[in-house]
Amino acid sequence: MSEFITLSLFASTLHLSVPVILPMLGGLLCERSGVVNIGLEGMMLSGAFGAVVFSYLTGNPWLGLGGAVLSGLISGGMLAIMSVLLRGDQVISSTAINLIGAGLTAALVPIIWGIDGTTPSVPKIPTLPLPLLPQLPVIGPLLGELSMIDVLAFALVFIVWWVLMRTDVGLRLRACGESAAAADAAGIAVTRVRIAAVILSGVLAALGGAYLSIVTLDLFQASMTQGRGFLALAAMVFGKWRVGPAFLVCLGFGLADAVALRAQIFTDELPHDLLFALPYLLALVALATFVGRASGPADVGKPFRRA
Amino acid sequence: MSSKRPALPRRGTARLDPIIAEALDARNTTPLTLGAFAALTRDRARTLGARALVFVLTLGASMLCALPFLLLSGADLGVTARAFFIGSLGSQFALAETLVQMIPLLIAGLAVAFSFHGGLFNIGVEGQLIFGGLVAGVIGAKLDVSPALLTFLCLSGGIAGGAFAALIPALLKAYRGVHEVVTTIMINFVAVYVALYAVSPKGPFVSASQPSATDKIPRDARLSVIWEGTRLHSGLIVAVAAMIGVWWLLYRTPLGFRIRLMGANPGAALASGVSVARMTNSTLLISGGLGGLAGAVQVLGVYGRFFDAFSAGYGYDAIAVALLAALSPIAMIVSAFFFAMLDSGAVQMQAVAGISREMVGVVSGLVVAFVAIQPAIVHLSGRIQRGNRPPEADPSSTQSLPLASGENR
Fold this sequence. Notes:
- The structure holds two protein chains of two kinds.
- Helix content of chain A is 70%, strand content 0%.
- Chain A is an all-alpha fold.
- The N and C termini of chain A lie far apart (63 Å).
- Chain B has a single domain (10-397), classed as ABC transporter involved in vitamin B12 uptake, BtuC, CATH 1.10.3470.
- Chain B contains 15 helices and no strands.
- By secondary structure, chain B is mainly alpha-helical.
- In chain B, helix 7 packs antiparallel against helix 8 (180-198).
- Chain B has helices spanning 18-29, 34-42, 48-72, 77-89, 92-117, 125-142, 147-176, 180-198, 235-252, 254-264, 266-271, 276-303, 314-324, 332-353, 359-386.
- Helices cover 67% and strands 0% of the residues of chain B.
- At the A-B interface, helix 3, helix 4, helix 10, helix 12 and helix 13 of A face helix 7, helix 8, helix 13 and helix 15 of B.
């Protein structure tokens, strides 16, 4: 057991939780502004795909990140048009994003590369070691496993929390989610705020997808996100739409994933396929036990129209 | 009792207030201009012609949006269209294959639509389908009883499996208020991994001769072929029976009325003494059972055994099937047939025109997108028709489907 719980288990926990944390942040911003977004999975897939395409075409993985941002802008923009501007049903609109994201990315792979399923490998983002930090006592070795990108991702958690809870912009955004009519009466452009939040959630989810495709791996595979967008959604609900708790839940999912992966290496006796269901089961159990009624933003899911 | 009441005509406008009756008459006799169409869809398209128009427009817009990607794959449009029709309707075999594809789509579409009628979104039909297929496959492989009984047991086992997969989301929604979309999706992934485990090399139900599958179900116990020389099996009868059953349940029974009442207005349902928790459970369990039935029929009719990748994403395409049919069980046979045509035509289109099969998923996503924005399109065209007068309050245009999203989250 002692060789099972090692530093690398925790390191892989952190690595595996990043692609859940980023879409979680996006979904949280989106729902706090009053728009249900179950389309995170499709946005992640389009981001993962956009990153690989740009990295493949330009040969520069950093431009790949730019491609992810671009595809996030597109998928977020689509959802914003459908659910905010045209006031379509938010759940159905974001389901459409999921279906289109999964279908289109898989359909474009053979168009670009001429092969089905998995793309050839493309340049991936180099893992830049961190300066100084690994020399720290106790947590130093753990930090040594992290690259610059991971640290940026974790910094985003703090930035989103700070913007949402400690700034004027965040207050406006939350007001739109709690009571769009009151926010409107106070002079906040509800539609504009919601559109911005939805597009931002697309970008964050797309970056989560890009982390999978050009940081962890170096290729795109049809439906490679394996439900992480939905896990992010569950983390957000379980964290009661607050950044800190939801972040911890994401770490929990990462740990469950890491345990499943390591168990596969270590022993043959455990049923691996069942272990891979662990994060999803964990999410169900969490939702079953702790979430109370009506803890989300009051106006989430309701299209807003000025009277 | 009822004989003392004056006889009222069952149809027509005699029951209504004269002013409303007049307005309805006027609306029904208006020629089908853009404005009339808008008014008709706003009333959720009361006439058959208008429903057909909405259907065709939604489909046409989705196909139009998918067109650039077809061109991107370098396909000749004429060749593609020919391949599509030859692949889906061109021969007896192609038509039978389309009908084979239609069976799971129809049943799964009914499952999605049923939950929508109750104001719930069962997005986990895929998982219920897998559970249902697994249970049916295991029962068929392990039990040793007479063929007819075995078929019955497999089908009911499949229904039970699907309902079981919907049980946890149902309870969580009814008693904890957890949004059913999140929980049913989680069950989808759990179902995939449970199915992988069940037929993995060390799994409990794996066949000795075939990896990743259960033992074969005895041939007599499978759903028999009803069109000689093709794969078309009697699952078609099961699907049509399910369709009629769902229609009857929704529109001719008290339970169906309560479910639709809850979907239209949970507050009103509660106020008139309907137990919303109980209705939530019934809705999701019946919906899940239908999903499980789709899986069982697929296992019994097409493959004769359960294997881990037996569902080609029917549960997800079913969302588009249900929404394209505007949730009407009877219209679903048309939308299911169309998506079945896409599925079976895709094989030919891939072979001849080099178009990826995944485009089917894109089309279903686009259909869902256009259904989502239907009220807005209707509203906009109504506004253009009226000129620039200020729009009157129009609550129906913001919500055309009985989905109380965001309520009770």
